[in-house]
Amino acid sequence: MTYVLQNVVFPLDRDPDLLPLYVDPETWSTIADEPVRVSSRAQIGNILDRRRARIVAGRRVSFGTYFNAFPASYWQHWTAVRDVRLRIRTTGPATILVYRSTGTGARQRIDTHEVDGAAESVFDLVLDQYSDGGWIWFDIVADEKNAVFEGAEWTTEQEPARTGKASIGITTYNKPDYCIWTLLNLAEADDVLELVDRIYVVDQGDQRVDQQPEYAQVAAALGETLEILTQPNLGGSGGFARAMAETLRRPESGFVQLLDDDVRIEPESVRRSIVFGRFASVPTIVGAHMFDLLNRPKLHAWAEVVDEAPFMWRTLNQHQMPHDFSVSNLRQTAMLHSRLDADYNGWWMCLIPVEAIREVGMPLPAFIKWDDAEFCLRAGRAGFPTVSVPGVALWHVSWVGKDDSIDWQAYFHARNRIVAGLLHSPAPHGGTLIRHSRRMDLKHLMMMQYYPVALRHRALRDILTGPAHMRGNLATAMPAARALAADFPETTVYKDTGVPLRSRLGRQVFKQVRPEKLDNPTGLRLRWFTFSTLVAHWFHAPRPENVDRPEVEFGKGDAHWWRLPHYDSALVSAADGSGTNIYTRDRAKYRRMLIESVRLHRALKRRWPALSAEYRRALPELTSLEAWDRTFGGSA
User: Fold this and answer.
1) Which has the closest alpha carbon to 471: 239, 627, 626, 245?
2) What does the pLDDT average to over 289-300?
3) Domain total for the chain?
4) pLDDT at 430
5) Does a structural domain hold residue 619?
6) pLDDT score at 384
7) 140, 98 Cβ separation under 8 angstroms
């Protein structure tokens, strides 16, 4: 039997910005080690439909792109597939060239076919030289006449390791328009629906998906495949846990495919993730990459890991991320050809085998933040790896234009990271986690950001009470955190009204520099800066005129932790550009919070071994299906 591993596709949207991800009809050169486009020939008009494209006479089109090259190294490393067949259908005179790359990005020719008329070219490929990395792709060169690419697939005769379908779980909170768009695209993707058992929309808001005008059309198209589940807002962890629980009750479902709500999907990626999960040698969590929904050629992360010492997440090669495919294509970017192994994948899109859920349990009742990373770490320890597969991706509203480290989410950032560290950190006392957490408090205090410090301290106090608080405040922690903002004037965003707020000394402008060349203090200068600033803020009250009117103004990108502390008050642009926040030094709050930070972090360090043992003992109950069922029942 022939199994399609990957279809060659073109964008659903007729959006020129998307073309570099699917097809590369352009000439590139390299100047000073940087890829430079020297002749732009991308024409959306040459895309005839979802599977077909026109190749203009005399031009060369490469399918060595993110969505249409074949990630050979991932298939070789994580599956038993060794023989892959590439079938390409064309009409008209053309030359087809098949290439591979190495893990360092070096290109090598594999084969060449000359074709004319209606033709099908078949290339049999062996996956045996891709342990370090590498892709396979093809180019088509039209001769003296236009040619038409009629479609292509990457297939195998190898039997999959498992055959279960996937249930899709979409968690949403007042994003019905996004959900309707996702459901419409799934309804039109027959080859995806062949692999789908159920689609669960876990609606936790008051703007219901099933009350939208387009819902009747969606429901009619999807029929019994679609099920809307409503519950109070239990966050991402509560919504995805509900989708997992429902999937576990479906004998036809071998996987649950988690999807965030504020996304645009590539249906072929959904199909590929399920297929990869079926062929994986061991039950594997199949993660997707995330592109920026508002800057669609820009990829934010290739593979994400959790560093042990600070117990903090990051993306591999983070100094080269995000990557903009409109600036540097796949073939010109050596970094993208190495196989990168992930510790976890964000739950914007992630396929989880039911075997993993049955063995390691459900998510932590974390509401948001770290639920995905903690689950994947727990699953990895039990033998279920996470693979972030190239060519499997969606578009998500990115964190550009947001700063959730200083809004209500600061509580969950702090609490869930430390809880995950208590559960999984192999280092004594979490390595440098506690020191890093204390430094975060100091930076916020020096920057006159008292609200996130208050939330972080609430998180520490809750952690010290023991693991029962996590399920106890699952539905109340978020509204309580948001309500606390009323006590902190710096959380008010002053919208632009035509009469701008002004500071006494005017806007502070800094020369634009690369992130690695910022003017922040390091080494002994950093120690002296921190000590002298903490002492100054302790003893010196702000000048009255700086309290009555902000002293200076900063753009968001310039308001760094080593600049704001020099002033009594500052206007700072909101991260999303919607207005301005006013930060004012408050000596009484500063003193009280600094003492509390020292006290709480000392208590955490002193009690770390006992707390770690307590949270680890409680983990099976916290993540049990029975406990989550009681939560769902009690919140219905």
Assistant:
1) 627
2) 94
3) 3
4) 93
5) no
6) 98
7) no
Q: Quick one: 185 and 252 in the same domain?
A: yes
Q: Tell me, yes or no, whether 147 and 258 share the same domain.
A: no
Residue range 98-125: mean pLDDT, rounded:
96
Q: Which amino acid is at 117?
A: G
Q: Is 250 helix (H, G, I), strand (E, B) or coil?
A: coil
H/E stretch holding 60: strand 60-62
And the tokens for 585? Answer: 């030094």
Q: Which of 243, 576, 587 is nearest to 400 (CA)?
A: 576
Whether 213 shows a pLDDT value over 70: the answer reads yes
Query: How does pLDDT run across 300-317, given as a tens digit for each residue?
Result: 989 999 998 899 999 988
Residue 105: name the closest of 391, 328, 371, 357 by CA.
328
Q: Mean pLDDT over residues 444-448, rounded? A: 95
What is the pLDDT, as a whole number, of residue 297?
Answer: 94
Residues in the chain: 636
210 catalytic per annotation: no
Q: Which of 471, 263, 248 is nearest to 350 (CA)?
A: 263
User: What is the C-alpha to C-alpha distance for residues 595 and 587, in angstroms, rounded to an integer?
Assistant: 12
Return the sign of the alpha-carbon dihedral for residues 73, 75, 79, 82.
negative
- Which burial class, exposed, middle or buried, applies to 128 when counting CB atoms under 10 A from its CB (0-12, 13-18, 19+)? exposed
Angstrom distance (rounded) from CA 257 to CA 185: 16
Q: What is the mean pLDDT of the chain?
A: 92
Contact 297, 360 (CB under 8 A): no
Per-residue pLDDT tens over the stretch 367-404: 999 999 999 999 999 999 999 999 999 999 877 667 78
Contacts of 411 (CB under 8 A, 6+ apart): 455, 456, 458, 459, 477, 481
Q: Which of 108, 138, 156 corresponds to the end of one domain?
A: 156
Q: What is the pTM of this model?
A: 0.93
For residues 369 and 429, state if they share a domain.
no
Cβ atoms of residues 361 and 316 within 8 Å: no
Quick one: which of 356, 393, 391, 394 has its CA closest to 372? 356
24 lies in the same domain as 68 = yes
Domain span including residue 451: 410-589
Which residue of the set 24, 260, 292, 372 is catalytic?
A: 372
Rounded to whole angstroms, how far apart are CA atoms 181 and 188?
11
